[in-house]
Automatic annotation (TrEMBL):
GO MF term (any one): ATP binding
Database matches in InterPro entries: AAA+_ATPase, ABC_transporter-like_ATP-bd, ABC_transporter-like_CS, ABC_transporter_ATP-binding, P-loop_NTPase
Keyword Metal-binding: no
Alphabetized UniProt keyword annotations: ATP-binding, Nucleotide-binding, Transport
Protein name: ATP-binding cassette domain-containing protein
Superkingdom assignment: Bacteria
Tagged with keyword Cell membrane: no
């Protein structure tokens, strides 16, 4: 296991009026990984990012980044952290190239036109470098936010809903860019409403609701532990009862006995193997079926199930 780059312990944030945005959050992120934080609106994702980036003052707990306690050594740690916010907060009348270069200077780094050009080209912004940000499309404006966050060459990058409001093509381009950043050694933490982003890119996934972390695990382990297989076997003739030989399997009859429904397994392939055993028994017993529909649960199914359980 690589060394932790971010360590959060017992982090809380309570606002006047009683709202608890973060409730005793513990989280460790390791160097070089892509970590996806999933949760519904109001779950605490943006508050958590804000606490690490110095935009939100925690009510309690500790945050350590690169081995530094952010409560006492915030400035040196923050210089190594990049943030792409959810909201388009930038000077809309500034030229793209100037805005990105200015962001580099904010962190005390010397001017580096070659590096700025490299960033703009990697984001397909070089041809737009002289344009005012206000003249760009929504997707291009979001790319400018990413360029500004990369200008000071951070080791840890937060992406808060990076592909919200962009089209599918731009989303795929950004996924590619995130992969390239990881290859350069950047640790990435992203929040997203698009579960497929987590499935596509993340090494580990955390699920948060009502300010509490419900689960943190790598995708494969999460699928094995919480995944399942569902199958509907359509019978030629309705069954009145499930055959005794199949009583050990998680089967139910629906649609007046026409559908023999299976739900079980653990995300490791056990479910599909059991469905095959069920269909073999039906064939051996001379019980005819005319079709079968089978699917394995996705990360989205697991996410929805966990969130509903905790509601």
């Amino acid at each position: 296991m690589t060394q932790p780059i971010l360590e959060i312990a017992n982090l809380t944030k309570k606002y006047p009026g009683g709202l608890t945005a973060l409730d005793d959050v513990d989280l460790t992120v390791h160097k070089g990984e892509i970590f996806a934080l999933l949760g519904p609106n109001g779950a605490g994702k943006t508050t958590l990012i804000g606490a690490v980036c110095g935009l939100v003052r925690p009510s309690g707990g500790t945050i350590r980044a690169f081995g530094h306690d952010l409560a006492t050594n915030w400035r040196s740690a923050r210089a190594r952290i990049g943030l792409v916010p959810q909201e388009l907060s930038t000077d809309m009348f500034e030229q793209v190239q100037r805005a990105v270069a200015y962001s580099r200077g904010l962190f005390g780094l010397p001017a580096d036109p070659a590096r700025i050009e490299e960033i703009l080209r990697s984001l397909s912004l070089w041809d737009k470098r002289k344009e005012q940000i206000r003249a760009l499309s929504g997707g291009m404006k979001r790319r400018v936010l990413i360029a500004k966050a990369l200008a000071h060459e951070p080791d840890l990058l937060f992406l808060d809903e990076p592909t919200a409001g962009v089209d599918v093509e731009l989303r795929r381009d950004m996924w590619k860019l995130i992969g390239e950043m990881r290859e350069r050694g950047v640790t990435i933490i992203l929040t997203t409403h698009y579960i497929e982003e987590a499935e596509e890119m993340a090494d580990r996934v955390g699920i948060i609701r009502n300010g509490k972390i419900l689960m943190v695990d790598d995708k494969a382990s999460m699928m094995r532990r919480l995944g399942s297989t569902e199958a509907v076997i359509e019978m030629k003739q309705p069954l009145t009862d499930i055959p005794d030989a199949l009583s050990k399997y998680p089967l139910t009859l629906t649609a007046g006995g026409i559908h023999l429904r299976y739900r079980g397994g653990d995300g490791s392939g056990l479910g599909r193997a059991e469905v095959a055993q069920v269909t073999r028994h039906l064939a051996i017993s001379g019980i005819e079926y005319v079709g079968i529909d089978i699917r394995d649960s996705s990360l989205e199914d697991i996410f929805v199930g966990l969130v509903e359980e905790s509601a």
